[in-house]
Amino acid sequence: IGRGEDLLEARNQELREVSERFEMLSVTDGLTGIPNRRAFDQRLEIELALSDRYHGPLSLVMVDLDLFKRLNDRYGHLAGDEVLRRVTAILEGNKRVGDLVARYGGEELAVILPHTKAEDAAIWAERARRAIAAATMGEPSQDIRITASFGVAEAIAGDESARRLIEAADGALYDAKQAGRDRVVVHASNVSCRAVACK
């Protein structure tokens, strides 16, 4: 009986480990290893609730790699994948403990910055933008360079949903693209001088 119990316990432990791996995979982007859209959505809801409850600032930064399709067409999708991984590593290297960098979709990334006002989020985004623009990516034989556009929005306490905050950051990102790419734009409601490019 003792041997049977040991085998059963070992089997149960294996099942627990497999279950944990599946759970991890369900919230992790397979290409970059960072949280995926599902994890981002869950975390944003939590951070918005905390921000509202404790009246603390919360900012969202949407990031889009400029002319990424052109890069894929020129260098191939494997090179594009490597560029996406390296940009992700730059963003991860610039985040603080408690911040979340997630893959939002395609070449778009999202960064949740708790306890951060829009002006400070713009400073963070500008630092990340410069690091991306200065980096050489791709294989050693390739000199691939890419830029990124950033849209920043701050949650409005007591009157914010995840959808509205994402739309605000997306709107600022759109403005950054329209203004010539490779820049940071803060959503108009978060700055006294209207939507401004921080480049």
Largest sheet geometry: 6 strands, mixed
Helix-strand pattern:
HHEHHEEHEHEE
Quote the average pLDDT: 86
Using the alpha-carbon principal axes, give the shape.
flat
Distance between the termini: 71 Å
Helix content: 40-55%
Give the uncertain stretches in residue-range form: 192-199
From the helix content, strand content and strand pairing, which structural class follows?
alpha+beta
Number of helices: 6
CA-atom Rg in angstroms = 20 Å
- Major β-sheet strand ordering: 2-3-1-4-5-6
- Percentage of β-strand residues: 15-25%
Tell me how many strands there are.
Answer: 6
Would you kindly provide a written description of the structure presented here, covering whatever features stand out?
This protein is α+β, with helices and mostly antiparallel strands and 199 residues long. It is built from 6 helices and 6 strands, in the order ααβααββαβαββ. The chain has helices at 2-26, 37-54, 68-75, 77-94, 118-134, 162-178; strands spanning 58-65, 100-105, 108-114, 148-154, 184-186, 196-197.
